[in-house]
Amino acid sequence: MPATMKRIKMATVAVPNVDEVAELYSKWLGYKILDRSEVSSALATTWGAPAMAGRASVTLQPASKVDVFIRAVAIDPVYNYRPMTSWGWGAIEIIVKDPMALNRRLAQSPFGIVGHPRFLKGYPTICAMQVRGPGNEILYLTADTGPREKSILPEPGADVGRPFIMVQASGSTQKTRDWYAKAFGMKKGPISGTPIDIIQHAQSLPPDHPFPLSLLAMADSGNFLELDGYPSPTGPRVRNHGQLPPGVAMASFTVKSLDKLPLKYLAPPAAHRDLGYDGRRAATTVGPGGEIIELIEG
After folding, report:
1. CATH class assigned to 5-297
2. Are 245 and 258 contacting, i.e. CB atoms less than 8 angstroms apart?
3. 288: nearest Cα among 178, 210, 185
4. What is the mean pLDDT of residues 35-50?
């Protein structure tokens, strides 16, 4: 049986200034601004975040024109938020053509480069870099330089393509993996102890500190969850009352039916006509690390 979580539909970043995100992503990543609007009260209710109603929202699409989006929504600043130090959605991983060339380009941009391009240990053809956006959101920018027919990564379709991995953090990779396996019928991947230098640096950990990491595949090829285990004293992300959490705030996935999933939703499923929903029903639940998971039928 394939997993009931089909693919990534949208990644939402919550930031103080959505116009800044829109300008940087369009100028430096080649994303196109598709929609500028306000968060409807219906969507805010679906998200379990009533204070989001009426706040500015911008939705962007990669130059490949694939129907996977990054959405920026406005929140009040959370002054003590530092990325990669709390649970929830830790990063958006995006497929790109050439991290080396992109690194040279982004070095001239307002993006903060937190990890220069390097080939991954154990995956000699996969090269990745990491940047910090204007709202303290973290983006992993990744390419497979090996033969196309042997890659499990999607085609970028542009210099900077679509999100293909949502990176989640919690206090227990095993418990989180088991939760996603039960909730969405995902096959349990192995858990390996992996040093991740950008997280070690963010948390002031020694360079050999291993993070328990597991990768889970969704039903559609080229769509994954990465589960990272954080040590104590990390914990749930601080957020403003009634608002989405700062940084990478929410991940949206498609599912065949909301009615058959063993989940508790923050509000009853409801249809939305906003971009990315197209009149389909959506509902939101909360994962083991406090991550906000939006599910859209389709």
Report:
1. alpha beta
2. no
3. 178
4. 98
Helix (H) or strand (E) holding 194: strand 192-195
Kind and range of the H or E element at 198?
Answer: helix 197-202
Residue 118 pairs with which residues in a beta bridge? 128
Tokens of 221: 């090829």
pTM: 0.97
Q: Which residue type, as a one-letter code, is found at position 10?
A: M
The answer to whether 48 and 208 have CB atoms below 8 angstroms apart is: no
Would you call 48 exposed, middle or buried from its count of C-beta atoms within 10 A (0-12, 13-18, 19+)?
middle
Which of 39, 3, 293, 138 shows the shortest CA–CA distance to 128? 138
Peptide bond into 233 cis (omega under 30): yes
CB neighbourhood size of 79 (10 A):
7
Lowest mean pLDDT among 90-99, 142-151, 234-243, 270-279: 142-151
Write down the residue that tokens 């498609």 correspond to.
Answer: 254
Tell me what the pLDDT averaged over the chain comes to.
Answer: 97
For 235-288, the pLDDT digits (tens) are 999 999 999 999 999 999 999 999 999 999 999 999 999 999 999 999 999 999
Q: How far apart are CA 164 and CA 87, in angstroms?
A: 20
- Domain boundaries, given as residue ranges, for the chain: 5-297
**259 has which bridge partners?**
none
